[in-house]
Amino acid sequence: MPALSKPIPPLYTVYILRSTVRHASLYIGSTPHPPRRLKQHNGEAKGGAVRTSRNTLRPWEMVGVVSGFPGMVAALKFEWALTNPHLSLHIPSSSRISTSAGTKRNGHPKRPRHSLISILSNLHLLLRVPSFARWPLNVHFFAPGVYEAWKKWCSTANEPLRNTIRVLTDFAPSLPTSEDPENPDADNEPQKPWGIHALPLDYNPMKDYVTKTQSIYDFEREGNCVGCGEHLEPGNGLYATCSNPGCECTGHVTCWSRYMLGEEAGEDIIPITGVCPRCKGEVVWGDLMKEMSLRIRGSKEIEKLLKKPRKRKARAEPTT
Prior knowledge:
- It is a single chain.
- By secondary structure, the protein is α+β, with helices and mostly antiparallel strands.
- 27% of the residues lie in helices and 13% in strands.
- It contains eight helices and nine strands.
- It has helices at residues 34-41, 72-83, 116-126, 144-156, 207-218, 253-261, 285-297, 299-306; strands spanning 13-19, 26-31, 60-67, 138-141, 166-169, 239-241, 250-252, 273-275, 282-284.
- Strand 8 and strand 9 form a beta hairpin.
- The radius of gyration is 23 Å and the shape is globular.
- 26% of the residues are buried.
């Protein structure tokens, strides 16, 4: 299936992998399914990478993830730039942090050895360069030490990240003990998923939003554009609807863009966040585009998302 015929995926990430045996061993990759990819790197499932196949370095752990990429190609571009910061044309030469460590036999620049600080510093830089600065990205950290190193670098960086990039943490919970007098059944309680296992791998977090938009577009209730006031002909344009619960504010994608950009409309084309003109709630451009792409290109995904589970028939008790 061509890439353009697919909706924006529910999740696509670029991740930082670290050996639990030797913390200096690091790897950068990309995936739409971090738990499955981690199993591949650890040899628990087919796949993985040659560089992570040494049993002496296993098990590996994902200590950081960048999420919010609109697809595989976008994630691969970011992954390549983070892996090769000494070569990436996305980084202006005046801002480059990493430089080549000599040359190979073929004359190509040799990649400098990765360290945690070099990865984090180049990650901070890439999130600020023009190529990626307006992407709807979030940064997740799952190891306290890595997060502390990130905060330390941020405090010394010459330029801060834009305030719309969320930096999230989700560390391993402390193990419950039955010695807790307030919770004697702590050992029997199921542990909540954390880290990469708590990331949304499907469209379920959008279920209410999709249910609302299906009601609007299936019954041709688009109404007038919230921006230009023109009547929105059903099925005859690219329309977006507010993502806030209960708000059915709908308009042309171009009108949404101009409204959300405001004074930036002359400089940029794609907004990052804004405020709905009707409900005054915050609107994230990436959320609008993900729902629109799902509505236009993801009929199977929507059917699966909104499909009601079958009710199980009660078993008849055996007669004696």
